[in-house]
Amino acid sequence: MAQILPIRFQEHLQPVSLGPVYILRFPYLDSPEERFILEALKQLYQCDAIDRRGHVTRLGQFMVEFPLPPGLTRALLKAAALGSEDILLPIAAMLSVENVFIRPGQPEKQQKAEEKHRELAAEMGGCNDFTTLLNIFQKCKASDSPVSWCQDHWIHWRAIKSAFSVETQLQEILARLKQLSDFPVEKFEGSQNKLLRQCLCLGYFSNVARSWKETTIKVMIQFSIKQVIFQLFEQESQMDWIIFHDVLVTSKIYVRTVCPIRYEWVKDLLPKLHEIDVYELSSVAREEVTEEEVAKWEIKETAKRQKAEAQGEALKKLEKRNDESSVCDARARYLQRKQEREGKQGKVQ
Questions:
Q1: CB of 82 within 8 A of CB of 187?
Q2: Between the CA of residue 27 and those of 15, 37, 44, 67, what are the distances in Å?
Q3: Over its length of 349 residues, how does the chain's per-residue pLDDT go in tens digits?
Q4: Separation between Cα atoms, residue 17 and residue 37, nearest integer Å
Q5: Domain ranges of the chain
Q6: Exposed (0-12), middle (13-18) or buried (19+): which is 342, by Cβ within 10 Å?
Q7: Under a CB-based contact definition with an 8 Å cutoff, are residues 133 and 259 in contact?
Q8: CB neighbours of residue 256 within 10 Å
Q9: CATH node for 1-100+156-204+275-289
Q10: Cα–Cα distance for residue pair 125/242, rounded to 1 Å
């Protein structure tokens, strides 16, 4: 089977599997800045993929098998532990392919397409994009003619077809993991809708927002609060707290693929956004560096410092040489030497 899944979570976690020391010295083709590596470590910690010392957890070993974003992988494994992976697998597949909604350029066709899309959303309550994607996946797959169904509902058949393939691949990976003796098994009492939302909260709690002044919401990401425009099938007034999959930045900022939630579902998770310093996750790397590496680093830093100091001294000399007082002093010395030469020549004559 052709592997069409993007290798995304592996890029986060596989170098970490070699140890926190290794990821900072990993021989990247285009080495990222250290702050980006530290932010990636923080995201993995928030998903429970690594512990406070940067070591991969057992859950992280499960997560690395999935070529998905960390948050989505965490939500999928939580649903699998509760025996409800059939809900999250189609959603994960739909979020791994291109946008499934067709947006015609002609106003009349665009209106028809939006009406069909609203109908699909309304069937699942009208205010949860994740369940809307689930509904589209299930309806199309159950249809006698998926191609015709997509045409009637203004859905990209190519994207849906890719999602079917991705879902099959994810299902195979999960089935293999569930055969392991230490795969987590949990119980949940409540509706499937509530179960889905709480699984999504576990994976997307760092992407949480609250309604603010009608169509504007405040998004809390990495301690910063940004105001963005929120659009979801004219259901803004029903929203309070939401989670979202990603952010689209154009002339304005939009959150996409959102789900309404209760604050109680994320309040115990939110402290993880700031309970640990990103440098703490990599401090073990600095502690485990060998003395030889420290000596090389110190020599390198000393050379840099000496070079900078030499350049600074040269710059100071150049500035001193070119300032007004220095120019006047040089002119005076020149005139004095000229007068002395002229005096000597007069005596000779």
A1: yes
A2: 10, 13, 20, 22
A3: 333 333 445 555 555 555 554 566 677 788 788 778 878 888 888 888 888 877 889 999 999 999 999 999 999 999 999 999 999 999 999 999 999 999 998 889 999 999 999 999 998 887 889 999 999 999 999 999 999 999 999 999 999 999 999 999 999 999 999 999 999 999 988 888 889 999 999 999 888 887 665 544 444 443 333 444 444 333 444 557 888 898 888 888 888 898 888 888 888 888 887 767 666 666 544 555 556 655 676 787 788 788 878 877 777 766 666 666 666 777 778 788 877 777 776 665 5
A4: 14
A5: 1-100+156-204+275-289, 206-268, 292-343
A6: exposed
A7: no
A8: 13
A9: 1.20.120.1080
A10: 15
Tokens of 170: 């994810």
Amino acid at 342: E
Q: Which residue has the tokens 């009208």?
A: 126
What six digits make up the tokens of 262? Answer: 């209760």
